[in-house]
Design brief:
Shape: globular
Strand content: under 5%
Distance between the termini: 30 Å
Number of helices: 18
Order of helices and strands: HHHHHHHHHHHHHHEEHHHH
Helix content: 55-70%
Structural class: mainly alpha
């Protein structure tokens, strides 16, 4: 397939995803988890810089500017949601360009592109209001800027400063980006030793790229402590209270996970019981279905002055079997992601030690770091299962890297004596995307 044909395929898929998202948004698809909290911070200026809340201020600051322009009408959340969808699709198109040179098969890379465009968890949470909608665009931005730092020898300090601004913006959009500060420090350390950077250059790059996000992180924790906020106090289990998700739940697979293939609805509480399901099983249902019914039908009229929550959305009965089909076929991609991520992580660590990092290595190292920050503390938070700390919307950058690893593994490790393998993968992805489109329409 020639480059022009690829771009046409991407454009058609991106256009279809944009149309599907708008269709969902106008019927309430912007109403997601904690919607009343997000909306109140967006429209009330005193709450924009509320460091007692779970998320930092930049998303709400920019959203508040849009609110001032539009006013207190229902057009505001709809417009903001459509802007989020557009920004995410533009970011995806750049991610496709970023990863394209690393694939030998254009068909398998095209399959990855289609897969990510219509991935339900990405599609849904690009539209719902909240800072999670901006994690993929910021992650892609960081990949591009970091790539310049690693490869462009002419302006290393300017590129490092740009990286610092991008990571600082990330930290103040979603606190999860804090984990990339130590990750980048380790990465720079190995590059300093292996590429024989001068110490002055290593020190300058570290300061320019990490000082601002580090300062914003320290200030945020201090402000949260002063306000007795969620991140420093309210998220965490009190002494003596047992967790409702343990490391056994996180690291094992359970027989009860088979029940998840019924595509249960989140707010009917069946999947929220302590120790009933594994993290992997819950994540799988969250990635390949719409468990919260966020893109389904809102049963009450939309009104910006009314309390609206996902519980008020209903799923048409015929959509449950479609979601079950999406989960079943999705087993191929989850298994491929597990194998591919282990393989790519090994390659990345080997490349890091040798000072030879490719684009996919950087992507998987940053993605895994982001994932681990959300994954490892779950046994120590209050209501890990009940309040959905397992939901994959919290690890969208990680998912981007995991599925990149899955398709790269197929591309590199499965023999390609003909185009039949690529055609088969593209066909399976096409079926998966068609199922997901019907499920979310």
């Amino acid at each position: 397939m020639n480059p022009r044909g690829l771009r046409i395929l991407w454009a058609i898929a991106l256009g279809l995803a944009f149309t599907l998202s708008i269709h969902a948004v106008v019927r309430g698809g912007y109403i997601g988890p904690d919607y009343p909290t997000h909306l109140s911070r967006l429209i009330q200026w005193p709450k924009v810089f509320d460091f007692a809340a779970t998320n930092p201020p930049i998303y709400y600051l920019l959203g508040h500017g849009l609110f001032v322009l539009i006013g207190p009408t229902n057009s505001f959340p709809i417009t903001l949601s459509i802007l989020q969808v557009a920004i995410n699709l533009v970011a995806l198109s750049y991610f496709f360009q970023y990863t394209q040179p690393r694939f030998g098969s254009a068909l398998i890379h095209s399959a990855l592109c289609l897969f990510l465009i219509f991935l339900p968890v990405r599609l849904i949470h690009a539209a719902t209001l909240g800072a999670d909608s901006m994690t993929v665009p910021l992650f892609v931005l960081l990949l591009f800027v970091l790539n310049k730092v690693l490869l462009d020898e002419t302006l290393p300090l300017r590129n490092a400063a740009l990286l610092g601004l991008a990571l600082g913006a990330g930290v103040w959009v979603k606190y999860s980006f804090m984990v990339l500060i130590p990750t980048l420090l380790v990465l720079f350390f190995f590059l300093w030793t292996r590429r024989r950077w001068k110490f002055e250059r290593f020190l300058a790059i570290c300061i320019l790229s990490l000082a601002l996000p580090f300062a914003l992180s320290i200030y945020s924790f201090w402000a949260s402590t002063q306000a007795h906020g969620y991140n420093t106090e309210k998220h965490w289990l009190q002494k003596g209270v047992p967790p409702d998700m343990t490391y056994r739940d996180l690291l094992s697979v359970k027989a009860n996970d088979l029940r998840l293939f019924r595509a249960p609805e989140y707010f009917k509480r069946e999947i929220l019981r302590p120790h009933q399901h594994s993290y992997l099983g819950l994540s799988h249902v969250g990635v390949f279905t719409d468990p919260m019914n966020l893109f389904q039908d809102l049963s009450v009229p939309q009104n910006i002055g009314r309390i609206l929550i996902p519980d008020q959305k209903t799923r048409r009965p015929w959509k449950t079997p479609v979601m079950q089909a999406s989960m079943s076929l999705g087993l191929i991609w989850t298994a491929s992601a597990l194998v591919g991520t282990a393989w790519l992580l090994f390659c990345a660590l080997r490349g890091l030690v040798k000072g030879r990092l490719e684009r996919e290595h950087v992507t998987v190292l940053l993605g895994i770091a982001y994932f681990l920050l959300m994954f490892l503390p779950i046994p120590f938070v209050h209501g890990g299962a009940l309040f959905g700390y397992w939901t994959p919307r919290l690890i969208l950058p990680g998912l981007l890297s995991f599925f990149l690893a899955a398709f790269l593994f197929i591309d590199k490790k499965i023999p390609r004596k003909s185009e039949r393998i690529g055609q088969a993968v593209l066909l399976l992805v096409g079926i998966q995307c068609a199922i997901e489109g019907v499920m979310l329409i």
